[in-house]
Amino acid sequence: MRTVGLSLGLALLCLLRVGAEDLGAAELDMSKIAGKWHITAMATDNESYLQKKDQLKMAMTSIEVLGNGDLNVSFAIPTPGQCMRLVSIYKPTGVLGQYYSSDRGYKTAQVVDTDGTTYAVVFATRVKDGKTVHALRLYTKTREVSPRLAVLFRKLARQRSFTNDRIIMLPAQDECSLDEA
Fold first, then answer.
1. Which of 66, 80, 86, 180 could tie 70 with a disulfide, CB 3.0–4.6 Å?
2. Which helix (H) or strand (E) element contains residue 65?
3. Who's near 124: CB < 8 A, 6+ residues apart?
């Protein structure tokens, strides 16, 4: 589950800047990116997550933009019997809209689609122990996923070669939040 948290957070980091090539948009307003996000869906090729997909629940991420352009990201990830909380710093790669962290493996992420304020779909990769895993995640400002966003997410996941059995809409949960100490 620790891997899930780090990967989820990294994917959100890409919300800070959006590449014009990918989205036809200029940089996002940082004040709109900062704050809390819910990870409401994911598609992955990570077999360990897929084996536990019926146990996975919605996680939360909070992003703070630091003065040097780095991102301070907090995670609250529900795991069986506990709420895992992590904090990590992510740095720009030099590619617009892409960030990395070298905590417990090398991770990168890139925004695939966003409206800049209410949702973002992010593609992330993680390399650890010589293995590369991929994930596409849907981040929303609210816990609810509209039917339109669910369809969009599934379409984008299939375009990245994720089959339906690897796409997971995460159920809401109240046991694990960023607000708890």
1. 66
2. strand 59-65
3. 7, 10, 11, 107, 108, 109, 110, 134, 135, 136, 137
